[in-house]
Specification:
Elements: E1 4-8, E2 13-14, H1 15-27, E3 31-35, E4 44-51, E5 59-67, E6 82-85, H2 90-94, H3 98-109, E7 114-117, H4 121-127, E8 134-135, H5 142-147, E9 151-152, E10 161-163, E11 166-169, H6 175-186
Helix pairs in contact: 3-4
Length: 192
């Protein structure tokens, strides 16, 4: 099995939802190729930090820069063991790219492990892969899941929900749960 993960991102991806899984997956031996439509290896994307600070919804602050490490147009899907779809504002526009949707559908057609977090589920709904699936996401994306034929579950932000090859979490506080489930789907065993 391949030791590579494809990660979809873009400008104003949520900082933690890119940085944490990228570093965690690499720490257990995976090579993680982070791609963005219209970008090539060496290009930068801007991240955003989302947090609840007393408003009705999250506030967005400028985060770090992240260097894309793979050319979007040079992805060979058969090289990857799994797909990770990051959250933040990026999914609302990267889902408009036909190749992003093709890439996403491939992992579902091959029943390969997929992890998606927060607004990353917008890529899944646009790709048409959630029908009949039970999943979670940021609560404001829940109606999209339902409209796309999925079964939306509003769970605690520290949790993850797995249905077949797909594991999802509402937001970055769920990284531990989401990554633990993704590792299981990838066949990774960590013992202390």
């Amino acid at each position: 099995m391949s030791k590579k993960i494809l990660m979809l991102a873009g400008d104003f991806v949520e900082d933690y939802e890119l940085m944490v899984p990228y570093q965690a997956l690499e720490s257990v031996g995976f090579e993680v190729d982070v791609v963005c439509p219209g970008k090539k290896a060496g290009d930068l994307i801007a991240t955003a930090i989302h947090d609840f600070v007393g408003f009705q919804t999250y506030a967005e602050l400028r985060g770090h820069n992240f260097t894309i490490n793979k050319n979007f147009d040079q992805v060979k899907l058969e090289d990857y063991a799994g797909l990770y779809v990051t959250g933040g504002r990026a999914p609302e526009y990267i889902r408009l790219d036909k190749k992003v949707l093709e890439y996403t559908r491939y992992f579902f057609e091959k029943n390969l492990p997929v992890a998606a977090i927060c607004h990353g589920i917008q890529v899944l709904t646009a790709a048409g892969v959630v029908k009949g699936r039970t999943l979670t996401c940021y609560v404001a994306v829940g109606p999209e899941v339902t409209l796309a034929g999925g079964i939306y579950k509003n769970i605690d932000a520290t949790k993850a929900l797995t249905d077949g090859n797909l594991t999802t979490s509402p937001a970055w506080p769920g990284h531990q749960a989401l990554l633990a489930e993704f590792y299981k789907l990838l066949g990774v065993k960590i013992s202390l």
